[in-house]
Structures are given as structure tokens and as C-alpha cells.
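Side project, low priority. Logging it here so it doesn't get lost.
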Amino acid sequence: MTPEECLAAVQQDGDAVQHLTNAQRTPEVCLAAVQRRGSSLQYLADAQRTPEVCLAAVQQDGYVVGWLIDSQRTPEVCLAAIQKCGRVLMYLTDTQRTPEVCLTAVQQNGCAVAYLGDAQRTPEACLAAVRQNGIAVGHLSDAQRTPEVCLAAFRQHGDAAQYLTESQINNALEWTPTRHHHFSERVRVCVETLFACPDLPDELAAMIARHIPTRTFC
């Protein structure tokens, strides 16, 4: 095959690179292969996994970072992988989990917070996680479920309330500006969403009603 034919082959199907000889796997061909299909990186030798190739591979498929050795997991590569899929945080070492990587992971997929250690679950990371997916509150400890986090969680997803205790829900509702006799737009939408939920448990509805006697917003 000519160099042009090799390039055309991997541009059509990245996995075609496995059928090429090392001599045919030029830097251009290897890069084109992983740009087409990130997982085709598995067929490349370490010498062919240049920083550019590794970066392109995880940009196409974040899970590919799990196949890289530590020296290939540069900060840029780790961040790119997380931006593609937050759950690949599970493959990164503590050293590779920088504050930026951790925050980006939960912003991309809130449930990625499950892979963070307690020290990595900063208030900012916890809040970002539940804002992306309210169900992520189920992965947080009681200490991490601040009123703001709890309110953000069931504002994003009504079912998040099932993971909260009555005390946590009470504290979240008391944290809102109800004592000033008005609601912010954020809280108004949150409460209306909850009451509109067909699966809202009666006890939760009653609890909210105790804090909000009338659903009149001004």
C-alpha cells in the first residue's frame, strides 16, 4: 500500500491501522487513525504513541486514557479525557486528579463525584456535581450535603429528594429566602418543579407545605 492508501484506510476506519506494518504507521497515519477512532490506540506501539497522538485519542474517546501509562498521561491529556467523559476519573491517580481535573469531571458528569476522595470533594466540586446531576447527591456524605447543595440537587432532579433526610430537606428549605417573604427565581422554579413531579411522596409534599403554606410567588 502506498502512504496515501494507508492514510485513506485509517481515515475510513481507524482500526485499519492494526493491519499496517510499522513502516506504514507514519506519525500522520497514526494520528489520523486515533482521530477517527480513539480506541485504535491499542494497536500502536509505545513509540508511536506520541503526545499528539495520545491527546487526539482521548479527545475522540475519553476512556482511552485507561490504556495510557503514567508518563503519557500529561495534565493536558488527563484534562482532555475528563472533558470528554467525566467517569474516566476512575483511571487517574491522585496525583493526576488536580483540582481543575476534579471540577471538570463533575461538571461533565455529576456522578463522577463518586470517584473523588473526601479531600477532593470540595464545596465547589460537590455543588457543581449536583448542578449537573441532582442524583449525584446520593454519593455525598452527610457533611457534604449542605443546604445549598441539597437545594441545588432536587432543583436539578426531583428524585434527588429520596437520598435526603427530612432534616436535610428542612435545612435546605430554611436556607432559601423565605424568611424575607419572597423567593428568588431559582427557588421558585425549584419548588414548582417539585410540586409538578407526579412521583412526589406525600410526606415530602407535606414537609414542603409546612415551610411554604401557599404557593404564591412574588
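Brief comment: Confidence is low (pLDDT under 50) at residues 178-183, 213-218.
Revisit when time allows.
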